[in-house]
Every structure is written in C-alpha cells, then in structure tokens.
Predict the 3D structure of the following.
Amino acid sequence: MSELREIFDRGERAFNEHDVDAVMALYAPDARFRGPGGMDMNEAGAIRQFTVGWFQGFPDCRIRTTRVIEAGDTIIQEGVFTGTQTGVFPTPMGDIPPTNKAVEGPFVDVYVFSDGKIVDDHLYFDRMELMEQLGLVPAPAAAGG
C-alpha cells in the first residue's frame, strides 16, 4: 500500500470516529478546501469548522468508500455519506434545526498531497439531494407519473 493510501485510510477512520483533531492533522496549515456552492477556504480553522458541522448535525454520520483512484500526488475517492440529522446543522445559509431524517448520498472527494499532507481538497456532492432527504425542499415528481 502506498504512503498516500495509508494517509487516506487514516483520514477515513478519523472521520468515522469523529476525531476532528486526527482529521485536521492530515491537512497542511495552508491547505485549500473547495466544496459545493462555491465554498472555497484555505484556513485550517474554517476547514475544522466545516468538518465539525457535519459531526454536529449528523452525530451518527459515517462515510463508506466505494472506489479509490490514486495517481501521482492525487487520490480520488468515491463514497457514500450516511447519517441522521439529530443535531443543528450549520450551513452558509444559516443553521438547520434537527429534522431527525436519515440521509444517504454519494460524494466524490479529490485530495492532492505534498510532503505527506493534504494541500488541496475538492469535495463534490449533491446539495439539493441532501435538502430533499432532509425534507427541506420537495423531491421531484416521479417520471412517467
């Protein structure tokens, strides 16, 4: 197993254990994080706050990796996020009170490493699907119905 894959695997374990300190230890101090909706940050405190928000909103959340591609200094992860929103979920649009709804959704995360640390992290997931599963927006009508 490559060094990058070992670091990646530690990160997945840390996320699933909700160990924010272990997650943050994987990032370079000036790492850049980009996410859905134009989210773009390169400050460790902001990345920590984003991560803690998921643990806060979904105290039982977990990720399951379905595919990993490693190429040079980059790891691409396909996975599935699951959790139940029993806590307040902070978002750029404001806090979402607990809905007590379970969610399950695919994501792709692209990590670029340098000197054993994540220097660039670009997360992709369907925000609308998440809001639909939380019951905050109507789900689309079934096709053909």
